[in-house]
Each structure stands twice: as structure tokens, then as C-alpha cells.
Amino acid sequence: MSRLEAECCGDFTCFHFDVDIKNQWIWISEKTPQDYIERIKEDFDIEINGSHLFSVA
């Protein structure tokens, strides 16, 4: 995620996430542009969910 910070200049408004509070899991929403999904999907689940499972809603 940190590698995108410089590119996005701190503006992450185009990123959308779905949150499952009951199961404590966060998915990258399909509302997020596909090119951003491709860039973050490798690291997202490890950094956010602590698992290697790929999470795109």
C-alpha cells in the first residue's frame, strides 16, 4: 500500500472496500478501478487481513 501513496498523493478516494464486521474481513470492492485492484491485490490480504487469501468482492 505504501508504494501507491506517492502515486496517489494521499488521495485514495477511488478505492472502495467492503467490510464484514461479523467475520472481521475486508474485501476490495469491484467499485475500485481494475488497474488499482491489480496493483494492490498482491499485498492487500497480507497487510489488511493477515492472510494470503485474495479478497475482491
**Helical segment count:** 2
Task: Kindly state the number of beta strands.
Answer: 2
Task: Give the neighbour order of strands across the main sheet.
Answer: 1-2
Outline type: globular
Count of separate structural domains: 1
Poorly predicted regions: none
Round the Cα radius of gyration to an integer and report it: 11 Å
Oligomeric state of the chains present here: single chain
Order of helices and strands: HEEH
Average of pLDDT: 80
* Estimated helix fraction: 40-55%
% residues in beta strands: 5-15%
Descriptive account of the structure:
Helices cover about 40% and strands about 15% of the residues. It has about 55 residues and is an alpha+beta fold. It has one domain (about 1-50). A two-stranded antiparallel ribbon has the order 1-2. A hairpin with a 4-residue loop joins strand 1 and strand 2 (about 25-30). It is globular, with a radius of gyration of 11 Å.
